[in-house]
Amino acid sequence: MHRNWARTRVLWLINPPNPVMAGLIGLSMKTLRVFAIFCVCFVGCNQRIAQQNSTPPKTRDTSNQSFDELITAWGDMGMMFPDSAQVDVFRADFETSRSSLRDALSHSDNSVRMRAAYVIGEIGDIAKPAGEELLARLLDEPDELVRIYIVDALNSVGYDTNATIAALSDRFETLDGNNVPPNNDHSYAEVDEKIKVASALFSLSDTDSRSKYYDFVTQWLDPPADDLKGTLLDGYWERRWIAVNSIEQMPEATDAIPKLESLLAEPNAKLWVNTHVPRVLGVLRKNVQ
Fold first, then answer.
1. Is 61 contained in some domain?
2. From CA 40, how far away is CA 31, in angstroms rounded?
3. At 210, is the secondary structure helix, strand, or coil?
4. Given CA atoms 201, 133, 79, 142 in this order, what sign does their dihedral have?
5. Helix, strand, coil shares of the chain as percentages rounded to 5?
6. Is 131 a domain residue?
7. Number of folded domains in the chain?
8. In this structure, is residue 221 part of a structural domain?
9. pTM of the prediction?
10. The CATH number of the domain where 261 resides is what?
11. How far apart are CA 280 and CA 286, in angstroms?
């Protein structure tokens, strides 16, 4: 399964949509965007915690609810994402649920579209046929956070068609790749989306085309320059957050291990580094020959 953070993760701790919420939970995170979610992404544990200061509710039995009933509720989930039990409902009869998920990808509510992409990605390889509608949605999707989840889903299901590679390559070339200060509304910057697109292209492209995507993602693992200060330094750490979580979806990027180890040893590293970098190192080390 391409989406390694999809190992049923605690969503906020493994792949929050936008990093910046650090203080309260000891991790540097972004808040979920204006409509009150977060990614994010990116992502991966078998429950997703929705609230920082309260115990998450017990998983409800969703086995008797229709696909459309479950999807209708997605717009009112606040910071929650569909849990593994819901994903299993869609996975168990994907041939039937696919049409409902297809409709959800075109829903007027961007939080529903985002969750539809998320669920497809969590379903994994058997949802590869849904790559067709994911790609179609990506080309028309105006919301950058939804696009990021769609890109993650394309990666997770392994939808590596020529059309997919072409669309992602065009997107990669179009997006600005420069570091910027954090956005005031805690939304992703173009460079964050570009990191996610590069991660997907690394996984989906042929070996000969991977190097520039690998280089773009892993450059953010390098220590910040000594003269990088203030909001630009804050932005650089957000890029590093996105890069670390993106590399978890690049299990063959084992050459990144030394950079991750160096990040883990940095004396002024953010608190989230001690949680997330060891997890990603664990994924990569499984692929070391």
1. no
2. 9
3. coil
4. positive
5. 60, 0, 40
6. yes
7. 1
8. yes
9. 0.79
10. 1.25.10
11. 10
Long-range Cβ contact pairs of 57-64 (< 8 A, separation 24 or more): 59/83, 59/85, 60/85, 61/85, 62/86, 62/89, 63/89
**Position 5 confidence tier, pLDDT thresholds 50, 70, 90:** very low
Structural domain of 265: 4-52+66-285
* Residue 48, phi-psi category: left (phi > 0), alpha (psi -120 to 50), beta (remainder): beta
Q: Is residue 250 part of a domain?
A: yes
pLDDT tens sequence across 115-166: 999 999 999 999 999 999 999 999 999 999 999 999 999 999 999 999 999 9
Q: What is the pLDDT of residues 238-264, one digit of tens each?
A: 999 999 999 999 999 999 999 999 999
- Closest by alpha carbon to 189, among 58, 68, 19? 19
19 token code pair: 């990093």
Distance CA 234, CA 267 (A): 16
- For residues 268 and 271, give the distance between their C-alpha atoms in angstroms, rounded to a whole number: 9
